[in-house]
Specification:
The protein is an alpha+beta fold and about 525 residues long. The protein has 18 helices and 13 strands. β12 and β13 form a beta hairpin. α2 packs parallel to α6, α7 crosses α13 and α10 packs across α12. The chain is globular and about 80 Å long. The termini are far apart.
């Protein structure tokens, strides 16, 4: 038992020496966590930034470390506050004492938060977000039998498999497993575990309130380190300044000093920088479109587990429903496509796409238009209605552009063009990311208004682009009619009276590109 309780120390390239709890080590040494070694954190970014080959395994350990560090910092400050208040007011009301004791963080809760950080990305598929955002969404459009799914659902299913196969009762119980699951993904009906009175704990790993969580802190630092990009935000300082503070009579949230508003905005700007310069770089987008197309074409021929009886196997898109199959689904599918037997036309095409990627014969970027949403001044919308209207309008816009393209082409060439929506923001759609952050002054929750910002602070927080790509090879030229049609698009009136889009060309493909 003494050996079992001994902590393990590893060296992380970003955070240095990291202590791992024995139960975290047990979880790490399972095939479900080890699988993350074979899934790239940044998908197709390595085709633009060769250093971006780090994996979800490293990120998961880093997130667990930061989750424990933040949780212990909050634990220390809560304990210090309670001790100090007891000293200066020994005759305090027993109800207040009970309320403060409810906030105290136990060692078991710290462990649960660390496990949640470690396991939050278990459900990622090949090339990370490419799998659920590109491949699975399109596969589901083609096959109505596929269930609605996102990688967090896979994480919870994988977590179940882990606890079915390890001994954990020396450390946590079944109720704690339910708590860990809710730390990873908020249930649609709200939190249900016994920890729901400590809402601030649910803001550590996956913060649905304001998007400030340790998951992002790790990938900001890790991704920038591997990309070779500079960033100013340092989460260690933010962790030291974080404190649990009461807001709106009874709501306790992780809060930050009001004077730190610019440093927190710098964090959101780091997110924007990573997306603008790497994740949604136009070459990365082209490569990920190609990988997605190859996976879709080979979908029905990629069977998992590979050595199981045929009746027990699932194809790639169906594997998310069976964790014994999904365990085998990693970036290795890229190479498995190459080994598929037979002359099936779609498999042959999938192999050709992969060969093109190796030769850097990528899909070609044709053009990009900045999209500006114009709402009729005589119509009043609620924020919910406006958000839905804009989403519907973007779908109309995409379909309209596709129709315009199709009108210029023969039917057998429709598939050679792909239109994509590109969104850049600071993590809070088109709203100021500071609006949802909880601030404090002198240990009291306070509001933060736009007027308190610098006059140089941004006034717009989201920009949308629509991009056009050509899937032909280097030896082919895209149809000039399509390029001309795309360049001439200036405005699109959406159906009904929702509003309209103004389209402004920002970039087009150079002839020698």
């Amino acid at each position: 038992m003494e050996t079992l309780k001994r902590k393990t120390i590893i060296n992380d390239p970003v955070w240095g020496p990291i202590e791992l709890h024995p139960l975290c080590v047990i979880i790490i040494n399972t095939p479900y966590l080890q699988r993350l070694r074979y899934i790239k954190q940044m998908g197709g970014c390595c085709y633009v930034y060769p250093g971006a080959i780090h994996d979800r395994f490293q990120h998961s350990i880093g997130t667990s470390y930061l989750a424990g560090k933040l949780c212990r910092e909050l634990q220390k400050k809560i304990d210090e506050t309670i001790t100090w208040k007891k000293k200066i007011n020994e005759s305090k009301d027993i109800k207040d004492e009970i309320k403060e004791l409810d906030l105290m963080i136990t060692e078991k809760e710290v462990l649960c938060v660390e496990i949640a950080g470690l396991c939050h990305d278990l459900g990622h598929g090949p090339f990370s977000h490419l799998f659920d955002f590109r491949f699975y969404r399109e596969a589901r459009e083609m096959n109505s039998d596929l269930v609605e799914w996102e990688h967090e659902d896979g994480s919870l299913s994988m977590l179940d498999k882990i606890f079915e196969n390890i001994t954990f009762k020396d450390f946590i119980d079944e109720d704690d497993i339910g708590f860990i699951k809710e730390l990873i993904k908020r249930p649609s009906g709200g939190y249900t575990t016994k920890k729901r009175n400590k809402h601030f704990l649910f803001e550590i790993v996956a913060n649905h309130l304001n998007k400030i969580d340790v998951d992002k802190w790790d990938y900001f630092s890790r991704d920038c380190h591997m990309l070779g990009l500079h960033h100013n935000f340092q989460c260690e300082r933010t962790i030291k300044l974080a404190k649990v503070v009461e807001h709106n009579s009874g709501e306790w949230h992780i809060s930050f000093p009001k004077a730190e508003w610019f440093n927190l905005f710098d964090m959101f700007y780091t997110r924007f920088t990573i997306h603008r310069r790497a994740c949604q770089h136009r070459v990365v987008t082209a490569v990920e479109m190609m990988i997605k197309d190859a996976l879709l074409k080979a979908d029905k021929k990629l069977m998992f587990p590979p050595n199981a009886d045929v009746e027990k196997q699932k194809c790639l898109s169906q594997s998310v429903q069976d964790m014994d199959a999904y365990l085998w689904v990693t970036d290795d599918v890229f190479h498995r496509i190459r080994t598929l037997p037979g002359n099936n036309s779609e498999v042959v095409e999938a192999k050709q796409i992969l060969d093109r990627i190796d030769c850097r014969d990528f899909y070609k970027f044709i053009g990009e238009k900045k999209v500006t949403w114009i709402t009729p001044t005589e119509i009043e919308y609620t924020m919910v209605e406006l958000k839905k209207n804009k989403a519907d309008a973007l779908t109309h816009l995409t379909n309209w552009i596709k129709d315009e393209q199709h009108g210029q082409l023969q039917k057998n060439r429709f598939h050679l063009f792909e239109t994509g929506i590109l969104k850049f923001n600071y993590g809070n759609d088109d709203k100021n990311p500071l609006d949802t952050i909880k601030f404090y002054e002198k240990d009291q929750g306070v509001d933060f208004t736009q007027e308190e910002c610098s006059d140089m602070f941004p006034s717009q927080f989201e920009q949308i682009y629509i991009q056009l790509f050509w899937k032909g090879t280097k030896l082919e030229e895209p149809d000039k009619r399509i390029i001309k049609s795309f360049e001439e698009m200036e405005r699109h009136n959406c159906s009904g009276n929702m509003g309209s889009f103004e389209l402004v060309t920002t970039r087009t493909r150079k002839k020698d590109a």
